[in-house]
Structures are given as structure tokens and as C-alpha cells.
Design goal:
This protein has 181 residues and is α+β, with helices and mostly antiparallel strands. It is 55% helix and 17% strand.
Length: 181
């Protein structure tokens, strides 16, 4: 009887001292995965270090311009300050949704076409501001919080302003500040 108890205690001790093969396997897989991640990061940083930084590219462009050479980095379009019209800041209540009352604070700049008469735009600035306020009042917060909503808002404002301009047209609208509270 004592021998049976002693044998069962030895079996329990043997089971406890025996390692679980699943734990060992998971440790090996974990070590391999960490090694792979470390290797990929090393390769990424090696590739990034080979790329020239912005200061070097700009310096090369200036040097090429001074020497009269063609620079491979050319601006795609030039924007003159004369073709930009600042609309100042709008603070407008948004359309009432289910939640609390929300408003938008927007500062926009219009980019006018080359043939635009800026005197007409300045004379129609109250009409332009009224149009923008009316469009913003019709929007709900979820309409203007998404990127697609902001792009659609630009297009809607641009087409509304172009509908009553006689000389020239609005080419693009730049959001200088866009905040929804």
C-alpha cells in the first residue's frame, strides 16, 4: 500500500517536471517571427538611408538652375498671388441633426482663372460669402467631417460661385482652416 502511494506520488512529480511541447513550439515560432520582423525593419531602414533627403534635392535643383541646366523637379503649375482671393473666416451653424447644435469654422481662399477680373470678385464678395454661408447651413456635421464630404463641398461652392460670375471663374478652393465643433 505504501509502495502504491509512493509510486503515484512519483508519477505526479514526473508529470509536473515534464515540459509541455506546445509551449516550446510556441516559443520557437515567436522567436522566428521576431527575427523576421527585425530583418524587415533593418532592410527598410537600409533602403530609406539610401534615398536623398529633401535638403539635398533642393540644393541640387538650385545648383542646376544656377548652371542653366534643366532641373528634373519643375513645379507643375504656378500660382500668382493676384489670382487668389481670401474669403476671411466663416462661422456658420450646421443643419440640426440628432445631437447637440454644431457649427463649422472655415477659412477659404479662391483660386481664380487667369482671365478673371478681380474687381468683379471683390464687388461680388458679399454675394459669394452669402452663397457659402447658405451652402454650409444646409450641411450636417457628418456631411462635412469626411474627406469626400469636404471635396464635394468644394465642388458645390465652386459651381455656385461660377454660376453668377461673368468674367472668369473659380478654378479651385483651398481650405486654410476647417474646424467642426
Amino acid at each position: 500500500m505504501a509502495d502504491d502511494q509512493q509510486e503515484s506520488q512519483e508519477e505526479v512529480k514526473a508529470e509536473k517536471s515534464q515540459k509541455n511541447p506546445l509551449v516550446a513550439l510556441l516559443l520557437i515560432i515567436n522567436a522566428i517571427a521576431l527575427s523576421a520582423v527585425a530583418f524587415m525593419q533593418y532592410q527598410y531602414f537600409q533602403n530609406e538611408s539610401k534615398k536623398p533627403d529633401l535638403a539635398t534635392l533642393l540644393q541640387e535643383g538650385r545648383t542646376a538652375q544656377m548652371n542653366g541646366e534643366e532641373s528634373e523637379f519643375k513645379p507643375t503649375e504656378s500660382i500668382s498671388k493676384e489670382s487668389l482671393v481670401d474669403l476671411q473666416t466663416f462661422t456658420v451653424n450646421l443643419a440640426q441633426g440628432d445631437g447637440p447644435r454644431r457649427y463649422v469654422r472655415l477659412n477659404a481662399v479662391l483660386k481664380m482663372s487667369e482671365d478673371s477680373e478681380l474687381t468683379e470678385v471683390e464687388a461680388r464678395k458679399p454675394q459669394i460669402r452669402d452663397t457659402v454661408i447658405s451652402i454650409l447651413n444646409s450641411k450636417r456635421p457628418e456631411d462635412v467631417l469626411k474627406r469626400d464630404g469636404k471635396v464635394y463641398l468644394k465642388e458645390q461652392i465652386k459651381s455656385a460661385i461660377n454660376s453668377f460670375l461673368v468674367d472668369g471663374k473659380v478654378v479651385d478652393i483651398f481650405y486654410v482652416n476647417f474646424q467642426v465643433n
